[in-house]
Design a protein that fits this description.
The structure is a single chain. By secondary structure, the protein is an alpha/beta fold. The chain folds into 2 domains: about 5-100 and about 200-315, D-Maltodextrin-Binding Protein, domain 2; about 110-200, D-Maltodextrin-Binding Protein, domain 2 (3-Layer(aba) Sandwich). The protein has helices at about 35-40, 45-50, 60-70, 80-90, 135-145, 160-170, 180-190, 210-215, 215-235, 240-250, 255-260, 270-285, 295-305, 310-315, and strands spanning about 25-30, 55-60, 75-80, 95-105, 110, 125-130, 155, 175, 190-195, 205-210, 265. Strand 6 (about 125-130), helix 5 and strand 7 (about 155) form a beta-alpha-beta unit. The longest helix has 20 residues, at about 215-235. The chain is globular. The two termini are about 20 Å apart.
Amino acid sequence: MKLGLLGLAISVVHSGANAALPKEIKLDYAYYAPTSLVVKNQKLLEKALPNTKIKWVFSQGSNRSLEYLNSGSVDFASTAGLAAVLSRANGSPVKTVYIQSQPEWTALVVPKDSPIKSLKDLKGKKIAATKGTDPCLFTLQALDTVGLNKKDVQLVHLQHPDGKTALERKQVDAWAGLDPLMASAQVQSGAKLLYRNVGFNSYSVLSVKEPFTQSSPEAIEAVIKAYEQARKWAKANPDKLAQLLATEAKLPLEVAKLQLQRTDFNQNIPTAQHINALQKSGKILTEEDLVRKGTNVNQVVQQLFNASFAQKVVTK
């Protein structure tokens, strides 16, 4: 693989390489990003950086995570890869520096007694989805496979927990689910996964703003090291990870285990594989007019990644 093709050269010299660590590092944590829970719970950053204040902010979804990043409420955001692409395409200087996992965290969900049996049956129906997140973009990609688009359905923009509630109350016909809420709906109410496609689930990524890569490279390296510790621990301790997720998200252990069965932690350094996957998925952003006219989504995806930090600190 030629790194030059990716613009990810490991030999990048950071202009702020000798910059001191910031006095405070702000990160988000999320139930859909289990390694963030490990970093927070085990105080990995607090131990590694005893002289730096570590602040944690809870994110309900990628849209909230990116809002916090763009407003300066956090320095590091846990989001879906395609949501980060959408944010950068629409003007935010987002840079993805690390891959947390490859999850199958979203699918189209219907109640257990739903008469809806296929994607085509969704025509004219109400679908709950959180705008600007992987589940919403997943829905558009899924509909496209049967010749439908957002005009053929009624998208009801609700935050993920509210979408689950709306489905259970039969206020919508389908819901673009997100784990662990999706796993909870399956276990607790017998909800069914109408449509699954791992390829339409984008990666779980860790992103910062571009100026931060110049001003605080040491902070980025320290955070990636902590996330690598968490990733390796997660792989080695699946039962303990499930218990942690269940405790943090106040879920039955069975639900946490179902979510984690769908999560692959064999990811870390951004590569051509991740770029190609997002470029393929990114077509829907243009087709659905989710980005400004004339936007070159392939170029945006190339510009999104900076793998040099992970390349420097990750050890296999």
